Amino acid sequence: MWCLPSFGVDELESCSAALRGLGADAESMEAVAGRVVEVLHDGLVDEAGEPATALVRFYKTHRYGDLPAELRDVAGEVADRQTPCLTLLGTTGTEAAWRDRRRSANHQAIPLASKEAVARLPMVSRLFADMGVDLAEVAHAVPAEAIRLHHRSYDVFYVPDAVGSPWVPAQDDFVVPYGIRSVVGLGGALPSGDVFAVILFATVAVPEPAADLLRSLAPAIKAAVVPVTYRAFA
């Protein structure tokens, strides 16, 4: 286990090693995403050894036209089949409903049709901005550009104080009742040009040095999912 409030270099090395091997024998990215969120939720603990996150989610941008029919229905009508949708591939947390991506009411597949559409989603907008992701690149990446994006390093989405933050929605329904203190998001690009992001909703205050180190988990997660980049769903 890794103490989240004091997450340091030793924890980074151990956690990275655990994440890197999660792709072994996996048949889809959804399967790996499920393993990633479980390892992070169960492994990141507070100073008493209890889970330090209420919810951990794994998202990937996915072209609308390539989504399974049931997720296209969730996303709604989208004119351009190349429109990236922020798609929930893995989720776990304290509530049973948070342990099945199909039970998510509003986050299974979110169309990102334009910068204006993204701007209407405060946390998604801030997530992409802080990570340094250009949606236009994601939506229109050709093979050569996709490889360039794949080798880029990305920053971290970090909200040290979640209560009252304009970047973390559902304050009354989620943040306050579940004691969310900090939010950290990390991720990167895949060989397809799509982007993945893992978001940790922590019930402890995450100091900035720890958040910065958490960013460095992204390469280990990428190593686990790259072999199944083109087999997203189970």
Give the tags.
about 230 residues, alpha+beta, Beta-Lactamase, six-stranded antiparallel beta sheet, 10 helices, about 35% helix, globular
Task: Describe this structure as you would to a colleague.
With 234 residues, the chain is α+β, with helices and mostly antiparallel strands. The protein is built from 10 helices and 8 strands. The chain has one domain: GAF domain (Beta-Lactamase). The radius of gyration is 16 Å and the shape is globular. The relative contact order is 0.20.
Give the structure's gist in a few sentences.
This protein has 234 residues and is an alpha+beta fold.
Largest pleated sheet: 6 strands, antiparallel
CATH architecture: 2-Layer Sandwich
And the CATH topology? Beta-Lactamase
Counted beta strands: 8
- Give the number of helices: 10
Weakly predicted, low-confidence segments: 141-147
Query: How would you describe the shape?
Result: globular
Total individual domains: 1
Task: Return the CATH class.
Answer: Alpha Beta
Strand content: 15-25%
Strand order of the largest sheet: 5-4-3-8-7-6
H and E order: EHHEEHEEHHHHEHEEHH
Going by helix content, strand content and strand pairing, the class is alpha+beta
CATH superfamily: GAF domain
Mean pLDDT across all amino acids: 88
